[in-house]
Design brief:
Layout lengths: L5 E3 L17 E4 L2 E4 L4 H24 E2 L2 E2 L6 H6 L2 E2 L2 E2 L17
Parallel strand pairs: 1-3
Antiparallel strand pairs: 2-3, 4-5, 6-7
Length: about 110
């Protein structure tokens, strides 16, 4: 290992992948730091929630102009998220006799 290396042992709860892993602790072995967190999924919930809400906000900002829904059908992101509009199916993955490309939406 290079001096100052950091190992994050994500399997610490099950005993770890490193010989010097101490579950739930951060250990310094020479110039190497071994971080061994427990219950990693529980640590990720806040970050996952924040990322999801941020993505939702960004998506809404594409749709809303002056707090009014105005869909720009030339926007690739919006165009590809349309499943139905005006009684027709627009999603390529959904089979339908009435399917139209979303670019024809008025």
């Amino acid at each position: 290992m290079k001096a100052g290396a950091v190992i994050v042992d994500l399997s610490a709860e099950g005993g770890g992948n490193c010989e010097d892993t101490v579950p739930g602790k951060t250990a310094n072995i020479g110039n190497v730091t071994i971080v061994a967190p427990l219950n990693v999924p529980a640590l990720l919930a806040d970050d996952a929630s924040n990322l999801y809400s941020h993505n939702q906000l960004n998506f809404l900002e594409l749709i809303l102009k002056d707090n009014i829904i105005q869909i720009d059908w030339t926007d690739e992101v919006l165009n590809k998220t349309v499943l139905t509009h005006a009684g027709a199916m627009y999603d390529e993955a959904v089979p339908s006799k009435n399917k139209k490309p979303a670019t024809q939406v008025a």
